[in-house]
Amino acid sequence: MEEEISRIIGCLAGLAVGDAMGRPTELLFNYRRIEARYGKVTDLIGREAGAVTDDTRLTLTLADAILEKDRIISADELIDFWKWHPEFTWRKFLRSYNRSVGFWIGEHIVAWAGRLGLPGHLTGYLNLSWLVAGNEAAMIMAPVGIICRGCPVDAAQAARDVARAMLTGEGVEAAAAWAAAIATALSKGATVQSVIDTARSNASPQMRSAIERALSASEPYSDVYSVRPALYRCCRRLVTIDARETIPMALAMFWLADGDPMTAVVGGANLGRDSDTIAGMAGLLSGALRGIEAIDKSIYGKVCEVNGFDLEDYAARLATVSA
């Protein structure tokens, strides 16, 4: 049980640390601009160093909604819980172009649609991110993977059900593949390869092809820095928040790091594009595989302090929820 809790904490901590480390570099978009300003990012940097974005905040909002019901929830139940969240004020909606100060515009849209009476299984149609298979659903699936740990097929189905609150189409399928990967990373005897195989086997044809291209492009490289030009060539989509870009890049970082959380997080943070999501995704898979002991204590402590998080408490409570 001690190892299981360590890995659940590691999953949440890897997400938060990756999100915080990648937040400042996301705004630079390109890894060359990151190099020009910071060189190599290996610690928390920038204004409000350690602050997270909507990736972690919305993940914990989903966790709160699940913990209130003490079970996996539906899209309708998520929106019913989420629509009165204090982040969804008019003032913050006007600043929602910047995810570092609140939730993204699509997240405001689905919350306000819920306030107006639209059920959660339909709100995802109003978030135009579905046109590019947005990240919003996949990036928050850690609680689903935690509860369904060891049962990737169940995790994928539960993810599809709740993800409709955020998106429709490919974005929902991306969430299913990602939740399945998390569930496998938290299972006994998991390996880097078994996690990647699960992500591929639960992915849509488009996502599977993108994952295979990213992993194939990464094969000649041995570190998370030199691979960046190759990943840019094979993975870039028209819009940076497309899960068909972020998930393959995150899996490439996870693979190159051999599941080491801090190496994976650093790789994502220095990659650019949607670097907070890539680093957070790579970090949570690695943390789930290796446990909290593999995450830098100083950086993790600073992230929890800056954001007021008690991730150990979340982990302990999520561990008791039955799938």
Q: Tell me the Rg in angstroms.
A: 17 Å
Look at the structure and give the mean pLDDT: 93
The CATH superfamily label reads: ADP-ribosylation/Crystallin J1
pLDDT under 50 segments (min length 5)? none
Give the termini separation.
17 Å
CATH class: Mainly Alpha
Topology:
Blueprint: H1 2-26, H2 31-38, H3 54-69, H4 75-82, H5 90-94, H6 105-115, H7 120-123, H8 142-147, H9 152-163, H10 170-185, H11 192-201, H12 205-218, H13 228-235, H14 243-256, H15 261-269, H16 275-290, H17 297-307, H18 311-318
Compose a concise summary of this entry.
Helices cover 62% and strands 0% of the residues. It has helices spanning 2-26, 31-38, 54-69, 75-82, 90-94, 105-115, 120-123, 142-147, 152-163, 170-185, 192-201, 205-218, 228-235, 243-256, 261-269, 275-290, 297-307, 311-318.
Can you put this structure into words, describing what you see?
It is a single chain. The chain has 323 residues and is mostly helical. Helices cover 62% and strands 0% of the residues. It has a single domain, classed as Orthogonal Bundle (ADP-ribosylglycohydrolase fold). Helix 1 packs across helix 17 and helix 1 packs across helix 18. It starts with a helix and ends in a 5-residue tail after the last helix.
